[in-house]
Design brief:
By secondary structure, the chain is of the alpha+beta class. It has two domains: 5-63, no CATH class; 67-147. 44% of the residues lie in helices and 26% in strands. Strand 1 and strand 2 form a beta hairpin. The chain is elongated, with a radius of gyration of 28 Å.
Length: 150
């Protein structure tokens, strides 16, 4: 059915108003998948665009943590483990045994473990040198243990 002059004029005004605000995002699916996909989206009351936005949000929840945040999360885990012992940990260097999860970037770390309140320059003594080693517990949580290899 042909569009009326009024519809065409409205289309033109709308196109001018929204120019540069959207970009076409097309995807081809297999013929045998199309009907099932469309029916599923209709049953959920979602448009294709709404579904795509939802799917991206779900992916971001699963993997959207930036690497730097994963490192910060692990640093916080090390700090909490030290504080449980009434200590502070001054990092020296990464020692390997890396593991990346959805929320953490783990690595054994060497450094100085000293009582809270100890200035860093005073903590850097051989007797304080420890390795912060991560361990995965049976319940799936990660913990940090400080070990001395003298």
């Amino acid at each position: 059915m042909a569009r009326s002059a009024a519809q065409r004029a409205a289309d033109k005004r709308y196109a001018e108003k929204t120019k540069g605000q959207t970009r076409h995002f097309a995807v081809n699916v297999k013929m045998e998948e199309y009907d099932r996909l469309v029916a599923t989206l209709e049953a959920a009351g979602m448009s294709k665009a709404a579904f795509l936005r939802w799917a991206v949000e779900q992916l971001q929840k699963k993997t959207g943590i930036p690497f730097s945040q994963k490192e910060e999360n692990y640093t916080a885990l090390i700090k909490a483990a030290a504080e449980k012992q009434g200590c502070v940990f001054f990092e020296d260097s990464g020692e390997g045994r890396d593991l990346e999860t959805d929320t953490l970037y783990l690595e054994d770390v060497s450094g100085w473990l000293a009582p809270i309140g100890t200035p860093e320059k005073d903590a850097k003594k051989d007797e304080n040198y420890r390795f912060a080693e991560w361990k995965k517990c049976e319940n799936g949580e990660f913990v940090v243990e400080f070990k001395r290899y003298a």
